[in-house]
TrEMBL record, chain A:
It comes from the Bacteria. Pfam families: MreC (PF04085). The chain crosses the membrane at residues 9-31. Residues 124-262 form the Rod shape-determining protein MreC beta-barrel core domain. This is Cell shape-determining protein MreC. Residues 282-309 are annotated as: Disordered. Belongs to the MreC family. It comes from Gluconobacter kondonii. Involved in formation and maintenance of cell shape.
TrEMBL record, chain B:
This is Rod shape-determining protein MreD. It comes from Gluconobacter kondonii. Keywords: Membrane, Transmembrane, Transmembrane helix. The chain crosses the membrane at residues 30-48, 76-93, 127-152, 158-177.
Length: 309, 188
């Protein structure tokens, strides 16, 4: 047993010691953030079934509320659905016709078909942002092949990119996070820009050409770069203030449920040599070993590099 | 306000016999504040979609540590604060270590000033707590900026501080009731 004096000393020393440990954790977080996030991801993996259990009553209540709301106004809902169905049938016919035309055109152009990306579907385990970031954790099950940098989409459009991968869970950094920078193409003005998240609902557009300003309402798609393929729908341009274009995302970033994570593979395409550029051949260290052919001339050395001998 | 000793009406000569069940009951009652922090941290990390969930995690932990550190330090020792801070750190994704450090600092302040705070009254205690909640939120914001190498908007930090200050009175009411009843080891 410790003496009373020793216990008093220990009681006084424990708080400074714990504060030192906390400072150590802060420094570790600044230097080796992935190590700390790995531990957090493991804890989330462990808690994933409990999270499902916790939100289950809320999900059921939402389903009942939706059913109740639908049941109170059945006639109006039926009429709205009939109209929507009619419009969807029209768009289905248009889509089938366009797909056939697209196929014919690709055939005549000898279009090289792109590889079909692998994807995995997961449910959002928890909103993982905190006050200063926008991220979600997805439960993708065991044995997944998700890698860092894979692209996450919901039913409507681009959601973000995978930043951490755990055994069952992956973390997706959303497009409106402050650290997110995604190269995009503007569909109508054909300009390129960078979509930069700023922790608000609508990420900003920056670095667009000054002679091609983004047009209000035009579509924004991804530009093919790195693991991000070209042409993924992102959203539409909106001017929140003069000279401040933002992207209104297609994806519903506030209410995420089912998310798909696509693996488009690495961009290992190598650009060919620039036309007209001649590759410079490196000269060997000792290009000529034998005697020069014009050694009969007076005052010339027999071998190169032997001048002045 | 300071309740380091047993409740006055219970004289040692008439205290109930110490059994295993009573010892267990007493330790659970004493651990109630720490369990409250851990349970709320885990619960608030679930995807309920409630606005300000992450900020509430921080706010509840700060309020609980502040109240129990000056009100009944036996129920909130430094090691328990450290463990609670670690649990909050694990179940949140903020800059690592900031919540833990803030909790330990606010524990140190409340524990050191507990006699003075008990004389000051609720409003003055709330005001001092508010100052430390703002400092802790500012510290967290500064670390995020340092990590991102950019000047981020301080609005989320201000919201967190406001939420922490705002929930303090209602949590204090709960804790004052708990200190007399379910979190009172002398009632075991």
């Amino acid at each position: 047993m410790l003496s009373i004096h020793a216990r008093q000393v220990l009681a006084k020393a424990i708080l400074p010691l714990l504060i030192l440990l906390a400072v150590g954790l802060v420094l570790l977080g600044l230097v080796r953030r992935p190590a700390v996030d790995g531990v957090r991801l493991m804890a989330t993996d462990f808690m994933a079934p409990a999270y499902h259990g916790l939100v289950w009553p809320q999900e059921r209540a939402m389903v009942w509320l939706t059913d109740l709301r639908g049941a109170t106004d059945l006639a109006k809902e039926n009429s709205r659905l009939r109209d929507e169905n009619r419009a969807l049938r029209h768009w289905y016919d248009v889509a089938v016709a366009l797909a056939a035309e697209n196929g014919r055109l690709k055939n005549s152009l000898h279009w090289i078909p792109q590889t079909v990306p692998q994807y995995v579907t997961g449910r959002v385990t928890r909103d993982d942002g905190g006050p200063y970031s926008r991220a979600v954790l997805l439960d993708v099950g065991s044995g997944h092949q998700v890698r860092i940098g894979d692209v996450a989409l919901d039913a409507a459009g681009l959601l973000g990119r995978v930043t951490e991968v755990g055994p069952h869970t992956v973390r997706v950094l959303m497009i409106n996070d402050d650290a997110s920078r995604i190269p995009v193409t503007l569909a109508s003005s054909h300009g390129d820009a960078i979509m930069a998240g700023d922790d608000t609902a609508a990420p900003r557009l920056i670095f667009y050409p000054q002679d091609h300003h983004p047009v209000e309402g035009e579509r924004v798609e991804t530009r093919g770069q790195s693991t991000m393929p070209a042409g993924l729908p992102v959203g539409t341009v909106h001017y929140s203030a003069p000279n401040r274009p933002v992207v209104v995302p297609d994806a519903d970033l506030d209410r995420l449920d089912i998310v798909r994570v696509f693996d488009y593979g690495d961009d290992d395409s190598q650009a060919p040599d620039a036309p007209g550029r001649v590759r410079v051949k490196k000269l060997p260290q000792n290009p000529l070993t034998g005697p020069l052919p014009f050694s009969w001339l007076p005052n010339l050395p027999d071998m190169p590099g032997r001048g002045g001998q | 306000m300071v309740a380091e000793n047993s409740t006055p009406h219970l004289h040692s000569a008439v205290e109930p016999k110490q059994t295993f069940r009573r010892a267990l009951d007493m330790s659970i009652r004493a651990a109630m504040p720490s369990l409250f922090i851990m349970f709320s941290a885990i619960l608030l990390s679930a995807p309920f979609g409630i606005p300000g969930q992450a900020q509430l995690q921080f706010g509840i932990a700060m309020c609980t540590v502040w109240f129990w550190a000056h009100s009944r330090p036996r129920s909130m020792p430094a090691l328990a604060v450290f463990l609670c801070g670690l649990v909050v750190e694990i179940f949140s994704f903020g800059p690592p270590g900031t919540v833990l450090l803030s909790l330990l600092v606010i524990y140190g302040v409340a524990h050191h000033w507990r006699y003075g705070l008990s004389r000051l009254g609720f409003l003055m205690g709330w005001l001092i707590f508010s100052i430390f909640a703002i400092i802790a939120s500012f510290f967290q914001w500064a670390l995020v900026c340092l990590h991102a190498v950019a000047l981020l908007s301080p609005a989320p930090g201000l919201f967190q501080a406001a939420l922490t200050i705002g929930i303090y009175p209602s949590l204090t009411a709960l804790f004052v009731w708990g200190r007399r009843t379910f979190a009172n080891p002398d009632q075991a």
